[in-house]
Amino acid sequence: MLRVTTRFDRPDPALVDQLSGYSAATVHEAQGRLGALDSTIKPIDPTMSACGPAFTVRCAPRDNIVLQVAIAHARPGDVIVVSAGQYAEAGSFGDVLANACVARGLGGLVTDTGVRDTQELRKLGFPVFSYSVSMKGTVKETVGPMAGPVLIGGEIVRPGDVVRVDADGVVVVRREDLKDVIAKSRVRVDAEDAYIAAYRAGKSVIEVSRLAAVLEAKGLVIDE
Questions:
Q1: pTM of this structure
Q2: pLDDT per residue as tens digits for the range 123-163
Q3: Which parts are annotated binding residues for substrate?
Q4: Which residue ranges make up the annotated binding site?
Q5: Cα-flanking dihedrals φ and ψ of residue 52, to 5°?
Q6: Which residues of the sequence carry a binding annotation for substrate (predicted)?
Q7: Are residues 154 and 64 in the same domain?
Q8: Which of 57, 55, 174 is nearest to 104 (CA)?
Q9: Domain for residue 211, yes or no?
Q10: 21/51 Cα distance (integer angstroms)
């Protein structure tokens, strides 16, 4: 018998909402260039975006039985994060399960295996981020853990950590770091806005980024 729990602490929804206002790239940079999953995990549609607590699942390759159990037990707003061994040749999630997710109000799906029915998924609009697209079917044989730490895309994701996904990919923020990362993301956006304003005012990239002394120290000479 394998006993699993679906209970774990989730972050303050207000903080999750605040984090959703920043891009995945901004969040990654703001927390010290940490938390980005492997770039092979991408949205099936670049307009897809989500931010929510991770409901973590570990599946055997080409087997989606535990994923289906997770869909049945995840809470509204949760982003299901599936670790399945970075296996490309399996379509473990499609439009039928996506409709189940929408009906339960789930926030999205991130998986290191394949998905299928991508045209239908795009029409449905449910955010799906996957390692591959594959039409190959899966079995329902191997039960496994959920709501525990998983390794996916080179990062450890724990249940209740916050997953921010958009056109650039996936980044994870530790639940206990959420307030700090939000504050640092705000600082980064303000700084970038100032750079853009300076460019539009006529300043060069070298001036704004204070690169002149750095380039001189490296021996770069530019003849104009």
A1: 0.94
A2: 999 999 999 999 999 999 999 889 999 999 999 999 999 99
A3: 94-97, 116
A4: 94-97, 116-117
A5: -175, 170
A6: 94-97, 116
A7: yes
A8: 55
A9: yes
A10: 9
